[in-house]
Amino acid sequence: WWNDEGETQYYTFFDWNSAQLTTANTWLPGKRFFTIDRSFTPGMQRLGAVVWTGDTPVTYGALADQGGYITNWMLAGAGYVTCDIGGFDGIDDTPELLLRWYQLGVFMSVMRVHSTRVDRPHWPWLYGDRAAAIMRAAMNLRHQLVPYLYSLAHHFSQTGLPYTRPLAMDYPADRVAAATTIQWLVGDIMPAPVVVWRAKTRAVYLPAGVWYAFNTTKNYTGPTTLSVPVEWEDCPIYVRAGAIVPLAGIIQYTGQLPAGPLHVQVYPGKDGAFTLVEDDGETTNYLNGHIRNVAFTWSDTARMLSWTAEAPIDTHAFVALIATVFFPGGAQVSVQTAIGNGGRLQF
Asked: In the chain, where does DSSP find H-type helix?
């Protein structure tokens, strides 16, 4: 359901979702419940509700505000937050502004494009070849991140720790981190999207610890602030040392998963762990144990990636992996290896 307008009292949206969930469970038993809502009442996160950040103006200022909206909603208890990518209220987007929205949207808990019916639709191919290629790359990255994001969502449902969260949650004593809203954490990944018109550099704050530029061996020690050169194609992304990030190959829609081996990225410098969670992607059978966990661990001193796994449960489960470890002296890539019930790779 799309629950819009009708804010007559504080609990309206909670009541709407409760009624809709009851109806869905009656007529579509076993199917997952999903709504998108203009407003949020604490408790709605238990029902499967998504909140969006309202009728955002088509401006760079509104784009820059989204990081704060995302993280504040998450702190208020909202499990999933989205926005109208491209903005909703105002003139048509420019190619540069729209592609910046796409790049930011990759790192929201729900990535969703929307516009009014009288504006130029926010379809990439309407904004020139260069901008279209950049928006395509953003959507490809989002699909590659699905195994990681899906697992984080499962972890969130079990622990209550928001997987999209402000830096202040992980670095509470860091005053710079506490005041930062245009960077945030998605698990161990920290995006720093560009939100300024015609930007040629992006100031990126790195809290304490070792950080890697995503998908590279370039690493930096925080706390520090980087001045990162940026073109349209660039959205700075950093990953904490010790992170294990499972990625899919490039797909067009989630129904194509697994679409080849799981690509496991390791960012060394400290020990790490991550549990990949897989289920059928459609039903509530995961509540009854129809789920597969692959527990990865990285030993930094032994330079070893190991894992234990349950048997595949359906055709959505990955059966093989390729691991890449981004050592500062050069990345090392493993051969394709069966996941099976467990294994290990020495680097």
From this structure: 12-27, 60-75, 95-105, 129-144, 146-159, 167-170, 175-178
CA neighbor of 239 nearest in space, from 343, 301, 324: 324
Looking at residue 26, its amino acid is T
- Residue keyed to tokens 């005041």: 179
Assess contact for 17 and 45: CB atoms under 8 A.
no
Is-contact 296 278, C-beta < 8 A? no
Yes or no: say if 185 and 169 are a contact pair by the CB < 8 Å rule.
yes
Model-level pTM?
A: 0.96
Q: Say which residues have a Cβ less than 8 Å from residue 28's Cβ, sequence separation at least 6.
A: none
Q: How far apart are CA 256 and CA 253, in angstroms?
A: 6
Radius of gyration of the chain (CA): 20
Q: How far is CA 157 from the centre of its chain?
A: 15
Q: At residue 162, does pLDDT exceed 90? A: no
339 to each of 81, 160, 292, how far by Cα in Å?
Answer: 33, 29, 12
DSSP class of residue 92?
P
For residues 295 and 106, give the distance between their C-alpha atoms in angstroms, rounded to a whole number.
Answer: 25
Task: At 38, list the tokens.
Answer: 């203009």
Q: What per-residue confidence (pLDDT) applies to 42?
A: 84
Residue 287 vs residue 220, higher pLDDT: 220
> How confident is residue 133, by pLDDT bands cut at 50, 70 and 90?
very high
Asked if residue 67 lies in contact with residue 183, where contact means CB atoms within 8 angstroms, the answer is yes
